[in-house]
Amino acid sequence: MKTRLLPNHSARLLVLISLTWVLSGCQASTPITAVELFSHANCHGVSKGLKQIQFADLAGIRNVQMLTSPAPQSATPSNTDQQLEDVLLFVISNGNQPTPGYGFDLTATEATSDEITLRYRWRTPAADAILTQVMTSPCTVIQLDAHPDLAAVNAWLDDTLLGRVELDQSN
Up-side HSE of residue 29: CA atoms within 13 Å toward CB? Predict the structure, then answer.
């Protein structure tokens, strides 16, 4: 024998489903995009771990000088200024290495409502590679969309937590 829901029961069921959906945190959220800006074999001034940086730091990391002309002073922020405020930059390093051939491979990006986890594989030179004995300091720079709910970024290298940055986006 089939049972039919009465209109009163249908409304209750709809309210119950809606309430469960809201309380379980299944609300739609804005996705956070992670972009690898560059990987460099010999980064300068970068220590092992994960560190938040600014755009002005990029030239120093690559050991180059930025070639820019002085920007006109304006009382209102430009579109470029706003775009720079909408992103976060992070540098990831595993410290000094004895030869070239080391580096990072981004294998996964995981996001929760308030945290991003970047997972890397550490790339090493082939065992039979003939390499010069010169110190290198590989790093990679990641750009993330700024998001008001983002509270922390984690970087894992293979199975080891390389670093965690707690974000303060109150300004």
Answer: 16
State the pTM of this model. Answer: 0.71
What is the Cα–Cα distance from 110 to 118, expressed in whole angstroms? 7
Distance CA 92, CA 52 (A): 9
Convert 17-55 to b/e letters by CB count within 10 Å (16 or more is b): eeeeeeeeeeeeeeebebeeeebbebbeebeebbbebee
53-81 per-position pLDDT tens digit: 998 898 889 888 766 544 444 444 444 44
Cβ atoms within 10 Å of 99's Cβ, excluding its own: 15
Q: Which residues of the chain have pLDDT under 50?
A: 3-7, 9-11, 13-29, 69-82
C-alpha distances (whole Å) from 150 to each of 26, 93, 97, 114 are 17, 22, 32, 4
Give me the half-sphere count of Cα atoms (radius 13 Å) on the Cβ side of residue 55.
9
Residue with tokens 């981004």: 106
